[in-house]
Amino acid sequence: MGGLKEKIEEYWHAFDEDVAGVKDEKSLQEIRNLYLSRKRGYITLLFEELKSLKPEDRPRAGKRLNELKAHVQKRIQKLAAEMASPEKTRKKVDLTLPGRERYWGSPHPIILFKEEIENIFLGMGFSIQEGPEIETDYYNFEALNFPPHHPARDDWDTLYVKDDLLLRTHTSPVQIRIMEKRKPPIRIIIPGIVFRKETPDPTHLPMFYQVEGLVVDRGITFAHLKGTLEYFLKTLFFERINIRFRPSFFPFTEPSAEVDIECTVCGGKNEKCRVCGGGGWIEILGAGMVDPQVFKNVNIDPERYSGFAFGLGIDRTAMFAYQIPDMRYFYENDLRFIRQFARK
Amino acid sequence: MKISLDWIKDYVDVQVPLPELMEKLNMIGMLVEDWEEKQEDVILDIETYANRPDTLGHLGVAREIAAALGLNLKKQEWPVAESDKRTSDLVSIQIKDRDLCPRYCGIMVRGIKVSPSPRWLQSRIEAMGLKPVNNVVDVTNYVLFSTSQPIHAFDYDKIGGKKIIIRRAQRGEMLKSLEEQDISLSEEMLVIADEEKPMALAGIIGGGASAVSEDTRDVFIESAYFNPVSVRKTSKKTGVSTEASYRFEREADISFPPQAAIMAASLLTQIGGKATQQVLDVYPRPKKDKTVILRSHRVSELLGLEIEKSFIPKILHPLGFGVREQNKGIWQVKIPTYRVDIEREADLIEEIARFYGYDKIPPQIPPLRKLEPTFSRLKNKKNKLRQLLFHQGFDEFINFSFFDPQKKTLFENSLEPIEIRNPVSSKASLMRTTLLAGLMENVAWNKNRGAESVHAFEMGNIYFWDQGRHKEQVFLAMVSTGYLGYHHWQGKREEADFFHLKGTCELLMFHLRYVPFSFQEKDHPYFQPGYSLALLFKGETAGHIGLLNRDIVEFYSLKDDVWAAELDLAILFGKQPQSFQYIPVAKYPSITRDISFLADRDICYQDIYDEVEKLSLPFLEKFELYDLFSGSSVPKGKVSLSLRFIFRHPERTLRTEEVDKPQEKIIKFLGDKFNFQLREGGKIDN
After folding, report:
1. How close B424 comes to chain A (CA, Å)?
2. Pairing with B618, which of A300, B357, B397, B679 sits 20 to 30 Å away (CA)?
3. In whole angstroms, how far apart are CA B574 and each of A129, B161, B367, B568?
């Protein structure tokens, strides 16, 4: 029966055509039954026919038939696997629908800004110190070279608890507390809240954040003060910002300086600039070389050691950095304001 | 301080353009805060400092400008039309308290006619923003704003006994001001009196009785130096502050009173009248010259730059300092009496830096000789808490540390609040004893502005008296109300409840390794009765958590439940957390058993937890509440409660039989102790 060989080739061809038309699992199953069913499958039947061939013809035809069986099984298996994969069963979704965002708490802008400042100084080898918010007159004023009845005290409107007890008006008392405890070299910053007797308005508050810095060692100079603060301001703002040091007065520093940065809002070109008032400069830091009297008050020999100190209002600087027109916003804790800083 | 450029030109011939002048002033530390053109003049508003009373007059500012521009001060002549009488013929001066008044000068001008001042004088007064009064008053103001030396004019006719007595006030004495205001005097105050009564509060204000009026013909001009501290104390106590007291309390120039008197006499006699001969000058103990040693090496050491040695006298001379080289590079500097701020070498170095130019000092980074101790653990902990709270969806708020006394009763606690003696407002007269009052204020603020939920925390101090000592203690407070997270189209939203907040507290405690900790049902005045827990750690109460009571919620006009917690971080931070230790990851599989019970509705989970913990069952790695419900499938008065037990052997695979025994033990124990009944099909082996 020479016809078997041809039949095999015909079924091969027919299978390839049938399988090309398969669309779903059902039609695939039909084809599987048609060809591979153990009773009536075409291939099963072909094997039956093989038995009736002459023994010498059997091996060649048998080999070809086995090839056909393998071919059919492989194709069906492959198609079945493709159809069973999740990629085929997954429903089509509109991927442009909004994603699910987790509500992440927002840091307070003042704390955020305080951290930015702290990190700059940590990078310069400063450590962070803290101290009490309710202070004695001695630490807040006297040790810092404010004589008891000196009018310089008027610049620090003070909230008093008792004659000798007050809400610290600056973080400078911590300078004294640290210098009393430690020998130079000292290289610290002191962030914290301070209080003034001020009625709240857009630029004044009875409580705000300040960061104080102190460096004491042998051979510390005014040039070091300038270098440190310039590096700090350029890092906090940007490298090419213009900075101006001009003489000022603080009882606890001598010489004293005030540090201004150029107004980046108007560049000094708008006479009615809301930020700088047209002057082109914004006062940002008070600073100076530690007054020899302050050193004497903490038993550090001003002939052996020198140092510089500086202070910066965090709220005021943050106002400038973020272009916030009213300082009171920081303490209203309005979520529409605070939440913005989650993205800062 | 207002400075008229035209007036400055009486003292120094300023030719430079205005912007350049202002820049110069800024760079020597006389910041021009504002300026305006006024007719022919320019008025500068210059920032002055408490230590520089000499710049509270045009002469002092002119001196600075001259030095900065390298110009000389013009010499001024003050010719006086003199009568044949000497001052001492007409009046006597007696200082009874030399400490409070080291120097007192006087001169008389007789036969004047009190009338409006000449135009030039009026415009000077107007430049200072004042209204001209009459020639006598205007002259005294002119001298003050010119030289910063306050002077005072008395009506000679009204000086009883023609005696000027500078003495302390007596108890009960009064002074009636020009505005008919009674100032009550006390013994520490210095007055200028005649034979009978005080005529003026020394250095502060004159009385109405001896004031110059339209009928005045003869005036006595006072020019003195009063003790700054005394003037300040009296000014503070009486609440009277004047241009004069502002200058005296910053300290006047003790050598200047005679010149100021001459100046006033000259001006008055130019208008009319004749002055007495010689200023009557009572100055019993003349002050010694002040000298300060200045070493050039200290200048470089402090400023960080080498300044040409010859430069130093060149800077100091024009400012009026007498400079004499003592040794090479060492000068003896005589301080002019108007520079009351210069006492030490450092003060002189500032003068050198000021006129050398701060901008010319090269910036340098200070060398790091020794490392600072690394930053504090406390700060790390606070930061970690913040990060965990952000993760839990809490926003960070900051409130003022003040406290409204009304809120003190609302947020009742046992702490004795610290009161501020001079508060900014009566609603901010205490220091806060809880952070929750501020946070509730914020909840109300945000809810009133449309926020549907608020989950926020604040970390900061509370303040109180502790056995007479003031204390400040760092706390953490949280409030939580409304939905959690954002609304999303896909699904249901969770609402804040007690367990959200409790879970947050647990997270904080676990992550800072404050373990083991526990909660205990405990009422607290902030919270609804039966709806609060105390957080315990190492035997101390470290906080409270619960549902804020209705009084508080309604006080802020809120309707929804507000869950709140307040933790005493000072207590937590004061205790040692468990040290961190790596635990090897388990190698062998575990066996999990879920067991469901019917339990009485009023059981307390913490009791069950504690008791099971105490059993110390072998191989039990962990157990937890898996599921809890009641409803139609559960008998009345009962709840269905499933516990999940996870058993594991550290060194080998556990056999199921080994777990059966402890499981039976648990079932029996819970049945005996808590009346638990095993639910049908309640044992599930995984």
Report:
1. 6
2. B679
3. 17, 74, 36, 10
